[in-house]
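Page 37, continued from 36.
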């Protein structure tokens, strides 16, 4: 049986590299920040963390509240596309 997080990541936006992919977290590294979709409680959240602060708790939420995986993934993908290395 497939997990809701089963997706092809071959088409990550330009400048973003898949860092981690499992049933509880999906993360990508860009030139200046990391974007994360993480299971939190009963839902998923998406957020961005500056690479200079990867060990810190500072994060910019990309979703309002806990959401389903598709909503969090879509928010993360939209953010990466807006902040890609493509002109």
């Amino acid at each position: 049986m497939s997990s809701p997080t089963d997706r092809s990541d071959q088409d990550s936006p330009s400048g973003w590299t898949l860092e981690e992919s499992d049933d509880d977290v999906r993360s990508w590294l860009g030139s200046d920040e990391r974007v994360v979709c993480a299971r939190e409680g009963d839902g998923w959240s998406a957020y961005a963390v500056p690479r200079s602060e990867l060990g810190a708790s500072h994060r910019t939420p990309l979703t309002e509240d806990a959401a389903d995986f598709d909503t969090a993934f879509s928010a993360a993908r939209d953010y990466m596309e807006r902040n890609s290395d493509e002109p």
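The CA atoms of residues 24 and 39 lie 5 Å apart. Flag for discussion at group meeting. The beta strands are 17-21, 25-29, 33-40, 43-50, 60-61.
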